[in-house]
């Protein structure tokens, strides 16, 4: 996702976040402005024209900024698109528009992420093959099918390599999806620091909803009522054979180790 900092009605790009998957948290809090559209996917489009040329033109920059609402000094507007992190062309396109862009990527255990991805698809297409059959090219040999998007997206180190060709690590923040659930205020504190914002969001803004299994906002911005995730979040995952889960953990382990080294943060997915 991307965000722009502006003075009065004049926008200038400065900060930008994204998610490889929807982790269920909406952009909210003081100092931020809701985007006009939920997921513009501006830098992820591939149809219609020679985008590699278009994205360096002033008209393209204006088009991207026109998607954002006008913001005041001290405010940051964020555009959230899950697919940017895994879209090969996205880093070059965003860099061509604003090389000072900051990126925020929410990541979670790639095995859990793959199962969650499958669960979401299953809710829309009940007749799809089983998770096990989609995971393996050959079940007997245990060869993982990396062409399946649910598996491929979780190879975070590979995708990060693509982004590091354009953006230094100091402009990228990786947020733990697990800690957004166990310690939302702490993890959002890191986000506020990264964006140069005063730490306003704290523990007092959250409560844990036992029914959903997720933290909720005690009071949503501009509302007197609590705000929780929608009913599409927190679906019960199907039972996956432990052997399949272990094969996936073994597959992801070297990629996770490389990702920890690249980011300087141990996410604990292999413990």
TrEMBL record:
Keywords: Disulfide bond, Glycoprotein, Transferase. InterPro entries: NST/OST, P-loop_NTPase, Sulfotransferase_dom. 3'-phosphoadenylyl sulfate binds at residues 108, 116, 233-237. Disulfide bonds join 216-228. Residues 98-253 form the Sulfotransferase domain. Its EC number is 2.8.2.-. GO terms for molecular function: [heparan sulfate]-glucosamine 3-sulfotransferase activity. It comes from the Eukaryota. Belongs to the sulfotransferase 1 family. This is Sulfotransferase.
